[in-house]
Amino acid sequence: MGSYQGAHRTPAGTNLTILALESSASVVGKIAQIIVGSDATPADVATRYDVLRHTTAGAAGTATVEKPTDPQAAAASCNLRGGTMTEPTYEADFLLEIPLNQRATFTWIANPGRELRTVVGTANGIGLRSISSTGTPNTNCTFAWDE
Amino acid sequence: VYEVTARRPAGHIIIVGDFRTIEADTLQCVHCGGHWVVRPGSGRRRGYCMRCSGVTCGAEPCETKCVPEEVKIYGGR
Fold first, then answer.
1. What angle do CA A134, A49, B7 make, to 5 degrees?
2. What's the pLDDT band for A120 if we cut at 50, 70, 90?
3. Looking at chain A, which terminus has fewer C-beta neighbours within 10 angstroms, N or C?
4. Whole-model pTM?
5. What counts of helices (H) and strands (E) characterise chain B?
6. Is A104 helix (H, G, I), strand (E, B) or coil?
């Protein structure tokens, strides 16, 4: 089992994915930490982010480096995709809802064994998506996951 | 400020804002795997699965049928 991190930044908006972790054919990604913030000039912008499972992977987007916590560890099996992208097909129910002011930084940490897990298969994964926003601030997101 | 705690939390949130830092616990649904922030008196109805021995999130699919998260993640493997 290895631990990995990856980060990406892209503007928030309506139904825009910031960062998505996609399973491999046989490996499940277990997200243990999510950090969401903004490096834009401070302003009062209200954004709702949802963490959702997807059943069809996104396309295009930005290739994002998956960094192992241990430099000696093998490369990650899961794929990390940054927005803006052709949106994945998401499930209706969210795994975690994050209503956030742009001035604030949000961190979520799972207890061991209680991570958010992707469904096995390359089409499946978990994404952080801005559902609605009163602006388009740059959003920075970091995922830390085990696999 | 640690707003709300749970006896057996599944996770934690930390929100750092302009004026204060808010911390709270999250619980995890045994069916969908989703987390939510514990807010007593929120009016949201959650559940408990006697078969899985764990709390459920209150979403209709999770309350009406017992499909453990393990089954959803790995299917028939």
1. 130
2. very high
3. N
4. 0.94
5. 2, 6
6. coil
Of B11, B16, B34, the CB nearest to A111: B11
A104: contact with B, CB 8 A cutoff: yes
Tokens of A125: 């994964």
Beta strand pairing call for A125-133 and A46-56: antiparallel
Mean per-residue pLDDT, A17-46:
96
User: Which residue type is seen at B39?
Assistant: R
Q: What ipTM was estimated for this complex?
A: 0.89
Answer for the pair A111, A17: CB distance below 8 angstroms, yes or no.
no
Q: How many CB atoms lie within 10 A of CB B1?
A: 8
Best mutation target among A100, A111, A142 (most B Cβ atoms within 10 Å) is A111
Q: Does B46 touch chain A (CB under 8 A)?
A: no
